[in-house]
Amino acid sequence: MVFCGHCEDIYRRVYWNNRGKKKYVWRCVSRVLKKNSGIDCPARTIEETVLHEAVVTAVNDAFAQKNTVIPLLKQNIEEVINDDLEEKIKDIDKQLAELQIELINVSGDELAVERLGTEIVDLREERQDILTAAAERKDLQLRMQELIDFLDEQHTAITEYSETLTRRLVEKVTILDEKIVVTLKSGMEMEVEA
After folding, report:
1. Closest listed residue to residue 182, CA positions, set 147, 138, 152
2. What are the residue boundaries of the Recombinase zinc beta ribbon domain, all occurrences included (predicted)?
3. Residue (of 77, 13, 72, 73) closest to 48 by Cα position
4. Quick one: 55 exposed, middle or buried, by C-beta within 10 A (0-12, 13-18, 19+)?
5. pLDDT by residue (tens digit) across 27-78?
6. What are phi and psi for residue 9, nearest 5 degrees?
7. Is the pTM of this model over 0.85?
8. At what angle do helices 66-81 and 48-64 cross, to 10 degrees?
9. 124-144: b (≥16 Cβ within 10 Å) or e
10. Rounded to a whole number, what is the largest CA-CA distance in the chain?
């Protein structure tokens, strides 16, 4: 869930004992394991409290913009719903039925059978790609709706970090040199100076 803005590897939670001060920090795995990975990532180490504060700030920023964000999310959901994927599936199914009838009619001609067989395989792959895209869009639609529901339910800004809330709303966190980018599951990106 936490990624490096330099090498795009994951960050890992580490218990750090630095000059007698014990605390949890997050460090890029490539940097921690640079002897094994061969990558000398310059990513910074970030204290867990700073990471948590950035997530809280990002969620609160989204909450502060809810009057703008909710209509945009609803519009995006409408666009996903009104997509013509079902029509495309019906069209492909019709083409497949026609090709299968044609395949039966030319069963003695090997070249025609091969050509039709290739077309059928191609159409089935296209149909599967459309079904996959439809499932991904449905998932995105659900994530957007979850964010809308959260923003509607919230009446005040959150004051402390919650792991449950983070897992519900946050897709990923990217640590950069001077800022943290929190990507919400709806696709919204919130930049936090940290």
Report:
1. 147
2. 1-60
3. 13
4. buried
5. 999 888 877 767 788 999 999 999 999 999 998 888 788 777 777 767 766 6
6. -80, 175
7. no
8. 80
9. eeebeebeeebeebeebbebb
10. 84
Residue 95: both structure tokens together: 């083409």
Two tokens, residue 130:
């459309």
Provide the residue type at 45 as one letter: T
* Alpha-helix residue ranges (DSSP H) falling in 154-162: none
Please check whether residue 140 is in contact with residue 184, taking contact to mean a CB–CB distance below 8 angstroms.
no
Q: What are phi and psi of 60, to 5 degrees?
A: -65, -35
Torsion over CA: 26, 28, 29, 34 (sign) = negative
Compute the distance between CA of residue 113 and CA of residue 55 in angstroms, rounded to an integer.
59
Count of all residues that appear for the chain in the document = 194
Terminal alpha carbon distance of the chain: 18
Question: For residues 163-178, b (16+ Cβ closer than 10 Å) or e, as one string?
Answer: eeebeebbeebbbeee
